[in-house]
Amino acid sequence: MQTALPDDLLSTVAGQVADEVLRNCVHCGFCNATCPTYQLTGDELDGPRGRIYQIKEVLEGNAPTERNRLHLDRCLTCRACETTCPSGVDYHLLLDTGREIIEKRLPRKLPERLLRRALRLVLPRPAVFKPLLRLGQFMRPLLPATLRQRIPSRHRTAPVNTSNSGSRTMLLLDGCVQPALAPQINAATRRVLDALGINTLVAGNAGCCGALSQHLSATAEARTFMCNNIDAWWPAIKNGAEAIIVTASGCAPMVKDYGRLLADTDYAARAARVSALTRDLSEIIDIEAAAQALGRSDAGQKIAFHSPCTLQHGQGIKGVVEHLLERLGYVLTPVSNSHLCCGSAGTYSILQPGMASVLRDNKLEALQDGKPDLIATANIGCLVHMANHADVPVKHWIELLETLIPRGTYDNG
Question: Whole-prediction pTM value?
Answer without folding.
Answer: 0.91
